[in-house]
Amino acid sequence: MREDEEPPRIIDRRASQLPEAEAGEPKENDTLNQSPDALAEQLAQEKEKAESYLANWQRAAADFQNYKRRVEAEREDLARLTNAALIINLLPIIDDFDRALENVDASLAGLTWLEGVRLIQRKLQSLLEMNQVTEIEAEGLMFDPNIHEAVNFDEGEDGKVLRVVQKGYRLGGRVLRPALVIVGKQAGNG
Question: Is 80 exceeded by the pLDDT of residue 47?
Fold first, then answer.
């Protein structure tokens, strides 16, 4: 560096850009210069703000927990409904297997293809059991309109299910399909 050149000056731009109050001059509401009453009032205001923030946070946390529970319940309901829809669509196939196997001629007993069909029917039944689908009991019981649907009346004990025309099924406590039944009726009743 030559003697006639000035050394570079270092300028602290941060200090030059601060407002005067922040640049090191005393603040008007500096806590050291405030009275104890003013400090107590300021502290009370800050406590009130903090309590308000805490209450809002707690409310938001509770809302979020409720949201999570609601979403989980909706997800479970959707899974149940999806399973129920699939099972409802499988029930006519199971009915067809049942009817086909009930009407097999005795001369066909023991054929391997027939045993294969029986095996398929058993697999479908076990699939229902794995999904907590149960058959609705009907034959010999009193008619219950919540789980049975009367398709005809026949002479027999009044109000008792005489025969099942089509099996009914439930998934847990919910009826997927009511049992179609023939209900007994006394000969003298209308």
Answer: yes
End-to-end CA distance of the chain: 126
Three-state secondary-structure class, residue 180: strand
Planar angle of CA 51, 55, 56, nearest 5 degrees: 115
Ordered structural domains, the chain, with CATH: 41-131 (3.90.20), 133-190 (2.30.22.10)
Beta strand 148-155 with 179-185 is parallel
What gap in Å lies between CA 180 and CA 21, rounded to an integer?
88
Hey, is 2 helix, strand or coil? coil
Q: What is the mean pLDDT of residues 127-132?
A: 88
Residue ranges in 21-131 assigned as alpha helix (H): 36-102, 112-130
Predicted TM-score of the model (pTM) = 0.57
CA distance 33 to 38: 10
Cβ neighbourhood burial of 60 (10 Å; 0-12, 13-18, 19+): exposed
- Token pair for residue 8? 């570079």
